[in-house]
Amino acid sequence: MGRVLSVASECVPLLKTGGLADVVGALPQALAGQGWEMRVLMPAYPSVLPQISGWPEVWAESDLFGGAGRVVAGQVAGISILLLDAPHLYDREGGPYSGPMGDWPDNSIRFAALSWAGAAIAREGLQDGWRPDVLHAHDWQAGLAPAYLAYSGASVPSVMTVHNIAFQGFAPASQLAALRLPAQHYHPDALEYFGGLSSLKAGLITASKITTVSPSYAGELRRAEFGMGLQGVLTARAADVSGILNGVDTAVWSPETGAHPYSARAPKGKAHARTALCTELGLDVPGPLAIIVSRLTDQKGIDLIPLVAAEFLAAGGGLAVLGSGDPGLEAQMRALEAQYPGRVAVSIGYDEDLSQRMFAGGDAVLVPSRFEPCGLTQMYGLRYGTLPVVAAVGGLADTVITANPAAVSAGVATGISFHPTDAAAFGLALQQLIRLYADRKIWAQMMRNAMRHPVGWEESAARYAALYAGLVA
User: Fold this and answer.
1) Which of 209, 320, 332, 444 is deepest in the core (most CB within 10 A)?
2) Which DSSP state fits 302?
3) Are 90 and 43 in contact (CB under 8 A)?
4) What is the pLDDT of residue 53?
5) 10/288 Cα distance (integer angstroms)
């Protein structure tokens, strides 16, 4: 059995701000079936400290970027967790990345410490004798871990996974020494990045292999409109880049375990779930009920919703929104709810139980993202037979078989995709949704197709296992 150290800033069920935590939390159990033992290293934020009482110390450093730090080990929900306990860096009110006044100004240092600990454990092992064969770093917060490994001359191979290239961990060049990075590597072909530093770039140039969370996103990142300044790095390392789709936890996200259970073989329970959801939200919708479960940001295309809602609602559709984000977009969603009572319902915030009821009771899920590295929302939709209406980008394009005439005729369509990501194309997709919903035979076939589409971790875990095995060999 091989061993992998996964380094990340969050992990379900301990802490989650987005899809990164879901992936980091799902991989250990998925890889166990492939013969790999994975331990997850993440910071010991105040919210997780009560859960680690009595955990043994397995690593320590007296000067971890300004104070003492130690790693304690334990099990949470079947996951082997390593928590980096460094109060001077992580014991503060607020979220993992920001507080009441915005982003923590020392984030570059805080997550350099996480990377430093990860690299040290990869090189030296833990006090209990455990030592990884591979280090797997996730996003900018762990980007310096492959760099610290490479610049120390260690032979442990590393994988750098880009979950969202929009977040790059920028720091001023004046922090080079404070981040314990070698000055001789500060040049455009290595650490220098637009006059400063980027922990994500550092990981991309030093990791043994690079993965993104979908094959299409791996290709998109080599283009200027998606690469966000790092397209040159990804192009230069193209031979080492691969895209591996994320999966979802099919035990948690399952239409067979809700209040109104149903399956692809017996989908009738979905109608009861729809009725219950409409009652709960105060909706009366004669046509397709579309749901949105998302961060409310321009990246997610939420600004397009007010531009297309009137025509969709006039044709009989309904809309249920769950999410939070940009205050202006939150206000626009509230305005739609006020303008269309009984046809639009909006819940600001996040409630996983409500989201599961929405996937169970909705007819379609809207994901009009301008870019989407992988996306889990459309996979939840497939799992529940809640047909995805998606922009044809990234992982959305890789997971949804659009209902063009050929796919409908062949009986393989699982949703609707559109391009480009603008109001005109999105509006046409919603009109197609209205027409497909009216044809009950086609709609039933698409629901069955969607629910039978594999969205679990089996195939993806096998690809990660093969990648690790290649590195170790």
Assistant:
1) 320
2) G
3) yes
4) 81
5) 36
